Amino acid sequence: MSSLSRELVFLILQFLDEEKFKETVHKLEQESGFYFNMKYFEDEVHNGNWDEVEKYLSGFTKVDDNRYSMKIFFEIRKQKYLEALDKHDRSKAVDILVKDLKVFATFNEELFKEITQLLTLENFRENEQLSKYGDTKSARAIMLVELKKLIEANPLFRDKLQFPNLKNSRLRTLINQSLNWQHQLCKNPRPNPDIKTLFVDHSCGQPNGARAPSPANNPLLGALPKAGGFPPLGAHGPFQPTPAAVPAPLAGWMSNASAVSHPAVSGGAGIGLGASSIPAALKHPRTPPSNPSVDYPSGDSDHVAKRTRPMGLSDEVNLPVNVMPVSFPGHGHGPAFNAPDDLPKTVARSLNQGSSPMSMDFHPAQQTLLLVGTNVGDIGLWEVGSRERLVLRNFKVWDLSACSMPLQAALVKDPAVSVNRVIWSPDGNLFGVAYSRHIVQIYSYHGGEDVRQHLEIDAHVGGVNDLAFSTPNKQLCVITCGDDKTIKVWDAGTGAKQYTFEGHEAPVYSVCPHYKENIQFIFSTALDGKIKAWLYDNLGSRVDYEAPGRWCTTMAYSADGTRLFSCGTSKDGESYIVEWNESEGAVKKHYQGFRKRSLGVVQFDTMKNRYLAAGDEFVIKFWDMDNVQLLTSIEADGGLPASPRIRFNKDGTLLAVSANDNVIKVLANTDGTRLLRTFENLSYDTSRTSEAAKPAINPISAAAAAAAAAAATSSTAGLTDRGGASVVGISGMNGDARSLGDVKPRITEESNDKSKIWKLTEINEPAQCRSLRLPENLRVTKISRLIYTNSGNAILALASNAIHLLWKWQRSDRNSTGKATAGVAPQLWQPSSGILMTNDVTDTNPEESVSCFALSKNDSYVMSASGGKISLFNMMTFKTMTTFMPPPPAATFLAFHPQDNNIIAIGMDDSTIQIYNVRVDEVKSKLKGHSKRITGLAFSHVLNVLVSSGADAQICVWSSDGWEKQKTRLLQVPAGRPATAQSDTRVQFHQDQIHFLVVHETQLAIYETTKLECVKQWLPREPSAPISHATFSCDSQLVYASFLDATVCVFTAANLRLRCRINPSAYLPANVSVPNVHPLVIAAHPQEPNQFAIGLSDGGVHVFEPVESEGKWGVPPPAENGSASSVPASTPSVGGASGSEQAQQR
């Protein structure tokens, strides 16, 4: 049945309900299977109408459909059986046993025997499991709670439990509109038409020249319904709360067990259900214009057009805000209000953490003590007053043997880990860290620098998205939530798991524990926008609502615990801050001030009982809790990311804000400034235990200073905290003790002067090359794919969280060509709509999915996938043009056919390659030859072949005419260096379209296609880091390669000889932890042979060019046998054979 036919059924259901055709309504519900009326189902169960209950269920599921369905029917038939026994009607009980319950014997014979034995008991309550069975009414109510959980969890009932959000008498309205339009088309319209039938089109019979009447004052089919507000729809009310035994303080959020019959909600702004407070008909009247030839929009069509918005909010939130008492960067509004004096608005401290802050929290008692977690897994503890970093801990699994095998495998495959949340316990004696991989670590804090390991919990499969402390039953607990869709409660002392809450259908994004009137509960939000609430029991969720934005939402209470707020951002970048009416479970206030779509997920915090703050549009925005209008915004001296992360201290005197370049800015009000000054000239010894000898407070800062003062080759101290021992080894591998001045390449002197000893060009300092880190977006954790546009004026990145980023360079005085350059910063570009290009993702953690994309030759669209369906995006509008090929299998590599953009080669994770025609939406061929997922595809338009590579280290050549396999060869992996099981093998054609580059973690190689023979090979030295990615320069004269120790090497492509090495000290701050931050992908500019870009594991993208005085990357090494060698060499050259080639091996 088509979508419109399905909607017509809903309109008919509404009409039948309004006309009181009750039996017919439920018959249509059952026969269509579109809407399961939970209220009707409850009534029938309460009344014990078991035949009708099963008959109604049969329209949606059968006994053997799935385990949920089986349990539903079993519970109903068991209850029917027990009621017959309770009435001592044994003949009926036997009949139920034989006809209804015997079917379950094949699945659980022991259970059936136990049920049968109940016949032998005088009172079945003698059975221990049934000893608490009460009377019939209470038993049915208890069973209903279980049935509702089963129905809600049953995938067959998905999208069938909520009636569409319709205006009342919608079918009548549509008929009215149709009749009005028919009357408009009458040649001789009468002022008072007499409508007697709907079976034929209306036509006025007698000419009188009158125009059509307005339906507003002369309706054709009875009075039009009043616009706005939902009428009571009986069984079809848009909201039926779930009955459950929940204490009264959560009324409105959680339904009461005694409330069996629930009235329909008839308006307001309930979560996901409320009606518009500004009726659409008042803004767009239904009255047609006097000219019958002009189309007119109806109020209802306007309502339909708005249905895609987050529902449950008044229309006013979508109206343009023309007057805003705030100045925004780039907007021409009037001056901002002066911020109230009690707002922290003065930048008092700037702290360099060394990596991007992801989460911050002030100590609850020592309010200048700031805890920080970063995107590379680092934990920092700062005394803000004295600017001292007291503690720095890099991520490390404390006991790997105690971790689950999935976690161990994930860490071996990709050790990069980010912090999702840091938080202090209420007393400040513990703090917790939630990581992007499975793990929660709890530290104990003993003052000063004394931080000790307390607990490590392998908490969730995938990421741990949030963490909180709570004290149910006066016992400190840790609450976590994660990508596995669960919330878990742990004993903070022992780490023992106390509760697991299941019920979300998407990864759980945040948790918010609270209590009212001694009732402890937890709110949770998930990435599908659902809000649920849980008591500390195993009875399931008491709430199932939708948050504004329906994506990433966090919740927080005011300091006194009386007011509840939430902040959310939708997938399209729409952001919301709202206050909730807890007694009704509805939105109470919607705060205004998000003028355009956000570039990141907006973070917010509450300041005591008065202010709200959020990071958005490169500023911090403030609201008074009692006023929905934006109060003020603060730029914090500039340098903030698009969506800065923020955190108040307990008294609201300090505000920590994440800034660009790994900086944390601490803003203060007058009291906060006074507080910080008390530490200005004091060492922070008051809370420390006495120490005979104290280690350096900030070794990374000290290392950074040392690195700035001396060359990296002679300053090992500058590399200790970066995990850069391998870099030091590299510097000394060639016995090269030149100063930095000597290291600078001298191409004009050295390139052709063979009398001089060739030396590898080492780049160790930022001044030795031109590099630019592109503007960041903190929603990104790591860059999975990177490419320049074919025009050369933009860079497109695909992050591991399925979001695309596009940086565009503009023409200017400093950049006359408008091409990509390291000399001018580009703009992180978005279309005027503000939407993001975001790939479809599966239920699994997108960070663990394989990302891939391919750009069309004219840069007009990009094909992309991140483990879910393949999406085709318009590069100008960012709109999704289409999606196709839902997994499994999932796409792992994409390549456009060179002669036909409608033909795409798609590598799959099941080892096949599918040749897909976009125009006809059809797979033309399926190629089989690999044994593991496809990791590389490249077309040659000269040879008319497709070369493929896989995680099996195998290379295959396929004809692009008939798609038959021509040749296959296993990669020559050097002895003693076995590749990891899922190691990627990439392929890329040389400019001659005959040779191709093969990139593997163990080697670089050049292959000749027709014979599939290796003609050149370069192997890293044994202890050096694996290769992460490599690419030809645009003219195929160079090969750029990145490594997991954060070095980047430049090779001469003709002989794969190393000519230049860029060490991490040249582009990463000295206090960044290597190898936590390293290049994952590398891309070459399409027109500038000496320009390339790298995508990092911390979400950064860097563009590199040689310094203008040199113009090239290093000096070519001496040619073998005294002559320059071309790519088609006859014999393989395996990594460094000549005497000067120790430097060729890393």
Automatic annotation (TrEMBL):
Offer one example of a GO biological process linked to this entry: primary shoot apical meristem specification
The record, for InterPro entries, names: CTLH_C (IPR006595), LisH (IPR006594), Quinoprotein_ADH-like_sf (IPR011047), Topless_fam (IPR027728), Topless_Znf (IPR048419), TPL_SMU1_LisH-like (IPR054532), TPR1-like_2nd (IPR054080), WD40/YVTN_repeat-like_dom_sf (IPR015943)
Alphabetical UniProt keywords: Repeat, Repressor, WD repeat
**Domain of life according to the entry:** Eukaryota
Annotated stretches, region: Disordered: 282-303, 1107-1146
Q: Which residues form the CTLH domain?
A: 34-92
* Pfam families in alphabetical order: LisH_TPL, TPR1-like_2nd, WD40, zf_topless
* Residue stretches of biased makeup (Low complexity): 1122-1135
- WD repeat positions: 457-500, 927-959
Q: What name does this protein carry?
A: CTLH domain-containing protein
